[in-house]
């Protein structure tokens, strides 16, 4: 299997200290990897570094063998169109309405699209995630769960082949979470590569192929889902890590 994303000794520090030690890990094409571990262990940081949204201060990150942080403009635009990120805090623009937020990626990546085509695409992705309310309102008027749905819809817009999902079912009711799980399964069938952070063992068991445990800013363990779940000691460690 080929690595679609590869971290080579990637590290990250903030003013308070080291958040990610030198992490070396490969995420394979067409695979769904769950990143799990205790809160504050560095999962979101690792995911953002993998997506090129944070620049590591040590080591490098490769997308199909190309260093994400030294890509030229056209390689970077391709990477941005082919990948999408759902943020733990949704990260919707505060001063735009939902329609404008969803229109922006289409304007950037498909400049030839007409306004009607953009509207059709926006209606299709919002219907798919189950958001049926007004699109002409700002994110502040939405519940956290509704913001998550819009963040997920935004990630689907350009038909990504690489998805980064950070705590993507948090604050959603079970019915809405199941709807997103179904969408992820469709993306899996289409061959997408998926990296996701999640605390829901039911979802991890359902959709992950591979599990990477991140704790204290480093990869504590990685193996196939079957290997981890069939090993009583490892699955117990996983359950304890999730509970922290
Ligand atoms: N930009 C930052 N500045 C300072 N501390 C940060 C920053 N980003 C993350 N942290 C801290 O680094 C640790 C790891 O964060 P994060 O990657 O969000 O963990 P996780 O997603 O596993 O909960 C946390 O203690 C968090 O508070
Ligand atoms: Mg996080």
Can you give a write-up of this model?
The chain has helices spanning 43-50, 73-82, 98-109, 115-129, 144-156, 174-189, 201-207, 225-230, 232-243, and strands at 3-14, 17-28, 32-36, 58-63, 66-67, 83-86, 162-166, 193-197, 210-215, 218-224. The chain is 41% helix and 26% strand. It has a 6-stranded mixed beta sheet, sandwiched between helices. The chain has a 4-stranded antiparallel beta sheet with strand order 2-1-4-5, with helices on one face. The two termini are 33 Å apart. The chain contains 9 helices and 10 strands. It has one domain (3-90, 160-243): P-loop containing nucleotide triphosphate hydrolases (Rossmann fold). It has 244 residues and is an alpha/beta fold. The longest helix has 16 residues, at 174-189. The relative contact order is 0.18. It binds adenosine-5'-diphosphate (ADP) and magnesium ion.
**Major sheet:** 6 strands, mixed
Which shape, going by the Cα principal axes?
A: globular
Oligomer category: single chain
Q: What is the total tally of β strands? A: 10
Q: Order of helices and strands, N to C?
A: EEEHEEHEHHHEHEHEEHH
Instruction: State the end-to-end CA separation.
Output: 33 Å
Q: What's the CATH topology label?
A: Rossmann fold
Ligand set: adenosine-5'-diphosphate, magnesium ion
Average pLDDT rating: 95
Ranges with pLDDT <50 over ≥5 residues?
A: none
- Main β-sheet, spatial strand arrangement: 6-7-8-3-9-10
């Amino acid at each position: 299997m080929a690595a679609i994303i590869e971290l080579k000794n990637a590290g990250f520090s903030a003013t308070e200290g080291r958040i990610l030690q030198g992490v070396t890990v490969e995420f394979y094409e067409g695979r769904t990897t769950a990143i799990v571990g205790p809160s504050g262990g560095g999962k979101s940081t690792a995911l953002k570094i993998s997506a090129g949204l944070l620049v590591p201060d040590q080591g490098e990150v490769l997308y199909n063998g190309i260093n994400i942080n030294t890509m030229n403009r056209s390689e970077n635009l391709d990477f941005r169109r082919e990948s999408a990120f759902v943020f733990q805090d949704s990260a919707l623009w505060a001063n735009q309405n939902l329609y404008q937020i969803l229109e922006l990626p289409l304007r950037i990546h498909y400049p030839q699209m007409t306004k009607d085509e953009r509207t059709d695409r926006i209606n299709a992705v919002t219907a798919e995630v189950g958001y049926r309310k007004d699109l002409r309102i700002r994110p502040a008027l939405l519940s956290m769960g509704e913001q998550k749905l819009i963040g997920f819809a935004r990630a689907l817009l350009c038909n990504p082949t690489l998805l980064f999902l950070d705590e993507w079912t948090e604050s959603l009711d079970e019915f809405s979470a199941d709807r997103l799980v179904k969408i992820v399964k469709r993306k899996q069938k289409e061959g997408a590569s998926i990296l996701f952070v999640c605390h829901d063992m039911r979802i991890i068991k359902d959709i992950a192929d591979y599990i990477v445990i991140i704790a204290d800013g480093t990869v504590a363990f990685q193996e196939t889902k079957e290997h981890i779940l069939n090993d009583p000691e490892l699955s117990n460690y996983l359950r304890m890590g999730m509970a922290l």
